[in-house]
């Protein structure tokens, strides 16, 4: 089988990027594969090329609607017509049509929640697949236990007799996360390909401030004087709105992005950023996965992320074109307490577990707790899953362990901030890898001058910004 010829025929490339050939060869040989490839290294080609080698459909389990839609759009732009996304965007008629002709598609995208719907599950059992893909597979571990437990059920749905190979894809994953991926996908002795998580073209900078207000003032001054495109990450929806307004007042093309916004508004903002109409996005961690913008030059963490995995995922959205980019990690006293609160606010407490069991004992449906506002949607999903797996006392212990684990993850980020050792070496070691060679420009702890990598900001013409300003004003009024 000439893989290079297939690569040239369908994708127009003459050579594979590092790791792609090894991954595809293992899949062709019928092996399960866990592939850790940094953002921008061509993960999607690892399942798209096999889709053209085999005559049977490829099933891709994708965590986000925006990510799924982006991948579908990219395939269609390349001329692929046999692609479908089973998601909430489909009308009932479109869904029935897609399910009826499911066997005729080459690429089938589906969310974990949709995968578990009886109608979809039953139809997929009738379709002979060539490959099953878990995209952004780290979400199985990082989201499944305490955010979207349906991830933990994926393996239950997948056919175990004569099933095709499973490919788990991610940009970053620790050894424990990889073990979770293999376990919950019920993988069979998978081939592992682990590319270094180190991105040499992203320069790591940390900055300490006495007060939180000083961080905001620094961001405004910095963004006003340096060029993007860039993403500013915060932990608060309200802060994304406030900071984006500060930037708009200074004639900077910026917008807030968070899960509380209307779906159409989020799609509009994302598209404006991708096409260069917006220079800066101020976002919670709801933004980024599946956003394929090659020329992001700056990432600013207004406050510390809750885990080093999140940190690496988020800074990895810069410099996908291989050019220089800078990642700023800002910190003020007390940030770690807020990060711990954000990381655990949706974890059910003992009182919630007791109430859940009381409602069941009374003969009511537990979802009444949602209607009464006694549980958040996330807390309900977590309890609804784990109380089917374990006893109430075991679930209480599990929730406590999750809380301690999240606190420990925040403390590792704090160590990155406070420790004087090489920042790059610390994050690489976190993923069980080693940094074999120090680069000249590395991080704040090694000594770095980022001025050569930051271009001065050029004023945009007002006429260029009229359209997006009008549309953003509509979004601001609505929110």
UniProtKB/TrEMBL annotation:
<keyword id="KW-0378">Hydrolase</keyword>
<dbReference type="GO" id="GO:0016787">
    <property type="term" value="F:hydrolase activity"/>
</dbReference>
<dbReference type="InterPro" id="IPR014001">
    <property type="entry name" value="Helicase_ATP-bd"/>
</dbReference>
<dbReference type="InterPro" id="IPR011545">
    <property type="entry name" value="DEAD/DEAH_box_helicase_dom"/>
</dbReference>
<dbReference type="Pfam" id="PF16124">
    <property type="entry name" value="RecQ_Zn_bind"/>
</dbReference>
<dbReference type="Pfam" id="PF00270">
    <property type="entry name" value="DEAD"/>
</dbReference>
<dbReference type="InterPro" id="IPR032284">
    <property type="entry name" value="RecQ_Zn-bd"/>
</dbReference>
<keyword id="KW-0347">Helicase</keyword>
<dbReference type="InterPro" id="IPR027417">
    <property type="entry name" value="P-loop_NTPase"/>
</dbReference>
<keyword id="KW-0547">Nucleotide-binding</keyword>
<dbReference type="Pfam" id="PF00271">
    <property type="entry name" value="Helicase_C"/>
</dbReference>
<keyword id="KW-0067">ATP-binding</keyword>
<dbReference type="GO" id="GO:0003678">
    <property type="term" value="F:DNA helicase activity"/>
</dbReference>
<feature type="domain" description="Helicase C-terminal">
    <location>
        <begin position="215"/>
        <end position="364"/>
    </location>
</feature>
<dbReference type="InterPro" id="IPR004589">
    <property type="entry name" value="DNA_helicase_ATP-dep_RecQ"/>
</dbReference>
<dbReference type="InterPro" id="IPR001650">
    <property type="entry name" value="Helicase_C-like"/>
</dbReference>
<protein>
    <recommendedName>
        <fullName>ATP-dependent DNA helicase RecQ</fullName>
    </recommendedName>
</protein>
<feature type="domain" description="Helicase ATP-binding">
    <location>
        <begin position="24"/>
        <end position="191"/>
    </location>
</feature>
């Amino acid at each position: 089988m000439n893989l290079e010829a297939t690569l040239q025929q369908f994708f127009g490339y003459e050579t594979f990027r590092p790791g792609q050939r090894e991954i595809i060869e293992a899949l062709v040989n019928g092996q399960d594969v866990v592939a850790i490839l940094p953002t921008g290294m061509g993960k999607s080609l690892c399942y798209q090329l096999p889709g053209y080698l085999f005559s049977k459909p490829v099933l891709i389990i994708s965590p986000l609607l925006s990510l799924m839609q982006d991948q579908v759009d990219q395939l269609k732009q390349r001329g692929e017509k046999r692609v479908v996304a089973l998601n909430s965007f489909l009308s009932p008629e479109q869904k029935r049509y897609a399910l009826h002709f499911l066997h005729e598609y080459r690429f089938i995208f589906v969310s974990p929640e949709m995968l578990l719907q009886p109608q979809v599950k039953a139809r997929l059992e009738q379709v002979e697949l060539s490959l099953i893909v878990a995209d952004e597979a780290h979400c199985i571990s990082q989201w499944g236990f305490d955010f979207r437990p349906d991830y933990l059920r994926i393996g239950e749905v997948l056919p175990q007799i004569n099933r095709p190979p499973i490919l788990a894809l991610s940009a970053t994953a620790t050894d424990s996360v990889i073990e979770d991926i293999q376990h919950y996908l019920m993988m069979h002795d998978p081939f592992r390909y682990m590319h270094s998580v180190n991105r040499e073209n992203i320069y790591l900078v940390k900055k300490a401030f006495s007060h939180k207000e000083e961080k905001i003032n620094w961001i405004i001054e910095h963004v006003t004087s340096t060029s993007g495109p860039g993403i500013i990450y915060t932990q608060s929806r309200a802060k994304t709105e406030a900071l984006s307004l500060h930037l708009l007042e200074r004639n900077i093309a910026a917008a807030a992005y968070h899960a509380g916004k209307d779906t159409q508004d989020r799609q509009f903002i994302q598209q404006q950023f991708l096409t260069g109409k917006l220079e800066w996005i101020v976002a919670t961690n709801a933004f980024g996965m599946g956003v394929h913008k090659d020329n992001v030059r700056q990432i600013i963490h207004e406050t510390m992320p809750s885990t080093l995995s999140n940190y690496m995922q988020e800074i990895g959205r810069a410099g996908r074109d291989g050019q220089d980019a800078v990642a700023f990690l800002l910190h003020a006293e007390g940030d770690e307490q807020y990060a711990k609160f954000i990381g655990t606010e949706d974890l059910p407490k003992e009182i919630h577990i007791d109430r859940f069991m009381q409602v069941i004992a009374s003969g009511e449906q537990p979802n009444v707790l949602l209607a009464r506002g006694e549980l958040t949607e996330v807390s309900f999903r977590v309890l609804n899953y784990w109380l089917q797996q374990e006893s109430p006392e075991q679930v209480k212990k599990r929730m406590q362990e999750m809380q301690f684990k999240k606190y420990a993850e925040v403390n590792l980020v704090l160590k990155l901030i406070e420790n004087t050792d090489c920042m790059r070496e610390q994050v690489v070691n976190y993923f069980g890898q080693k940094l074999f060679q120090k680069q000249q420009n590395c991080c704040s702890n090694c000594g770095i001058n980022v001025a050569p990598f930051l271009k001065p900001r050029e004023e945009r013409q007002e006429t260029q910004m009229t359209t997006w300003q009008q549309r953003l004003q509509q979004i601001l009024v609505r929110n």
